Amino acid sequence: MAEAAKQTAIPAREPRRHRGLRLLEDIGGIIAHSSDLRASVQGIVATIAEHLSMEVCSLYVYDPERQALNLFATTGLDPSSVGKVAMGIDEGLTGIVIQKMEPVMAVDAMAHPRYKYFPETGEERYHSFLGVPVVDQRTARGVLIVQTSRRRRFTRDEVRLLKAIAIPIAGILAQTRLRATLETKEQERLSYKERMSDAIDRLRDYEGQPTARPGTQIRLVGLGASPGFGVGRAHLIASELRIDDLPRERRGPLKRELSRLAAAIKRSIDELGRTKERILTSVPEIDATVFDAQQLMLQDQSFVTRIEEHIGDGLRVEAALQQTIEEFVAQFTELDDPYMKDRATDIKDIGQRVLRQLLGVGERHRPSSEAVVLVASDIALSDLALVEQENLKAVVLASGGVTSHASILAKSLEIATVVGVQHAEDAIREGDQLVVDGNAGIVFVNPTPEILREYDRLEREYRAFNRDLETLRDLPAETLDGHRVSLSANIGLLGDMHLARLHGAEAIGLYRTEVPFLSHRDFLTEEEQVDLYRRVVEGMGGQPVTIRTLDLGADKYPRYLKVPREENPFLGWRSIRISLELPEIFKVQLRAILRASVAGPVRIMFPMISSLEEIRRVKELLVEAQDELRAEGYAFDPNLSIGMMLEVPSAVCMAPYLIQEVDFFSVGTNDLIQYVLAVDRNNRKVAPLYEPLHPAVIQVLAQAVAAVKHAGKRVSICGEMAADPVCTLLLVGLGFDELSMGPFFIPLIKRLVRALDYSTAQSLANEVLTLPTVREVKGLIFETMRDLGVIDIMEMYH
Prior knowledge:
Blueprint: H1 2-7, H2 16-32, H3 37-52, E1 56-63, E2 68-75, E3 86-88, H4 92-100, E4 104-106, E5 128-136, E6 139-148, H5 156-187, H6 192-204, E7 218-221, E8 223-226, E9 229-236, H7 254-282, H8 289-299, H9 301-312, H10 317-333, H11 338-358, E10 372-376, H12 381-385, E11 392-397, H13 405-412, E12 416-419, H14 424-427, E13 433-437, E14 442-445, H15 449-470, E15 486-491, H16 496-502, E16 508-512, H17 514-519, H18 526-539, E17 545-548, H19 576-581, H20 583-596, E18 602-606, H21 612-632, E19 641-646, H22 649-653, H23 655-658, E20 664-667, H24 669-677, H25 695-710, E21 714-717, H26 725-734, E22 738-741, H27 746-754, H28 758-768, H29 774-788, H30 791-797
Parallel strand pairs: 9-10, 10-11, 11-12, 15-16, 15-22, 16-17, 17-18, 18-19, 19-20, 20-21, 21-22
Antiparallel strand pairs: 1-2, 1-6, 2-3, 4-5, 5-6, 7-14, 8-12, 9-13, 13-14
Helix pairs in contact: 2-3, 2-5, 7-8, 7-11, 8-11, 9-10, 10-11, 18-20, 20-21, 26-27, 26-28, 26-29
């Protein structure tokens, strides 16, 4: 169709009004002969670009359920980005078109504060932007966009013509959505009872071979939370199982029902024991005593007797179990004690476990496939541990965001993950074959052979790229002119140390100690902490380990910590403020870190320090802990390095004074950026304003580095900014001695460091400090990366 568009192109000298009419006629002809939506739309955008002499014409289709825009067709951008690029309506200039439902024009798109860059499209060379809404009966269907490399204003006639063209496009999109809706309604005609019966049958068949549905490919879209690709069989971590459609009255003999109950309880107790052993082996940070507590509950005679009484009253065993669970949950939920409320959750869990045993499902969480993709509404750390590491290929979650705990864990384990996939549990069945694209945020259910071949090719390229990077593992992160930068790993689990060593980390730049606290039912004892910290230090074989004290609060409070409701928890009771208000608990952690320091080089780091008073009080408590250990005869390193995180603006202002109190700074950019810019990065309304390369952020970073260098000490950076290759040249040029990141990104950043001159990075940083806009900053960085021949690293990262 693009060829047909070229043949009908109108000479430039023809009156503009006639060219507009001819363009509408040609588009009408494409629609009239349409048999395939995507081919038709592709023909339309090609025709528009040809007639109007635009270098780019694209159509984004609006998904109202997800409040997202997906690139559907384009001429001028990289065609491989179609189907992969998506954004929320609160992102980018394209999102503004939907929000305002009117045309949006930008003479220089990159200068606009809402500009969103997608490196896979290759659109950075196009400056001018015009987008018009595609609307049908006041309902948004998408956005039609044209772009040119030359900075220019679009004429009123061009805007009107594009609006006119959007009308027939809206019509064919509306018809397509209508057909899809009718097909969906037809599929939903199955009764609830039939679907429930099917669900129970699938649960009972779980131990058998998976039953995929060949030829019925489904494409689901979410948010890429952990990069990479994964192919495997779906394993559903089931939501709460109900038995509303099963008969409640007991039909068999009383003795038979009591025997079924006793057998199900015994199998559940055995299953809990096996689960505990697996988790203790794979993820020792998890509080495995929860399984002991659940075993004791199942052996509690009052609990068992209550179920037996309901069976004696004439209920089937499944109904008796469910009624007993509901009664116990109601009793514990009414209590004020948080510990007792937690027992209500345990009771729900054991009720589900016994119920599955009664239905003949067996050990629910043991997928038989060698290549497993976990599918759930949400998952806990224990869920990830229930599948052998080498068999777990990907994770698909219906809920969650890219900064959720599940996402962070999956990224830490280097498992491809897509989150926020609505209807995932409805569309995916146990045993379905899945392709999970953690880069693009796409999940294919029962993919076609063509899709499998394409992802097999991408996977080969991805592995080849990483094999090339792994050749750098034992080489230093040294610039071409001999400047060394230390590349360290951020970890939160013992299992992360393997990845840190695998990818060539020179140290642990950030060990997050709060992860085990979040899974336990109380603060860890000193001995439990000593054991964990010593294993981390010993596991790094003499390389330095920076242990950060508890950074609780905001979005990560443990269940046992009583926290008052706060209007803005990110500015409230969190981090070092909690530690200083609970000094006895804080000193237990300080003692544990000190005792672990005999196992190897340890650096201790304190989060969210905002004043001299805070860091001095922290050091007083550290001295008290050292005095206590000496008196008790415990050994420790009396000379371990003391550092603090620089993540609030007040600390940056006080940096010349604070650096005199510690041995090093580590800049936590995740919080620092949102505090400097007054942007909550978890708020979708303002998240696009969270910009690491904002000139104000860069000025703050430069100010911090200058204070440290003047004192002759070291400064590192441990936020997400350290892992972004777009920022690497700037951070090195500003003078950061150490970059600490997720282990996966170390080879990428090392390749970039080894491809540049330190003098080039310094010149870049000096020039960036004079630039007043994000666009100018990014433009200079992209230009420098192209000159160095390393732009491919940025593309792989994104």
